[in-house]
Write a structure and sequence with these properties.
Blueprint (H helix, E strand, L loop, with lengths): L28 E6 L4 E9 L5 E11 L7 E13 L4 E6 L15
Antiparallel strand pairs: 1-2, 1-5, 2-3, 3-4
Length: about 110
């Protein structure tokens, strides 16, 4: 039998630190990609401990009706958008994004 730990034991593990530090992105434009392929760009105004995010001046980039995996340049104004963390797959700053070559792409 293992002895029970005292509830007041100071060696209890500390609260988990959030891996995603959104503090540095407050009032900056972010692109958020969701499960299912939707993409939204907006200014991060706030977030909570679950990483739900509030974006202002949000714009959704619409998908191609013939190819739902391809996002077009056509947009739809959303205004304020609340992004549920469970549906978010990718978050990155819009102004720091750069196109790079795919290192795994095979030359034809």
């Amino acid at each position: 039998l293992k002895p029970k730990k005292d509830m007041a034991d100071s060696s209890a593990p500390a609260a988990k630190k959030n891996v995603l530090d959104l503090k540095r992105f407050i009032d900056k434009r972010l692109r958020v990609k969701f499960q299912g392929g939707r993409e939204v760009v907006g200014v991060l105004k706030g977030y909570d401990k679950l990483t739900n995010m509030a974006l202002a001046d949000a714009v959704e980039y619409l998908r191609d009706p013939e190819d739902p995996l391809r996002v077009t340049d056509e947009t739809r104004e959303l205004g304020v958008c609340v992004c549920r963390s469970q549906a978010v797959t990718l978050v990155y700053p819009e102004d720091e994004a750069a196109q790079t070559d795919n290192p795994f792409e095979q030359a034809e």
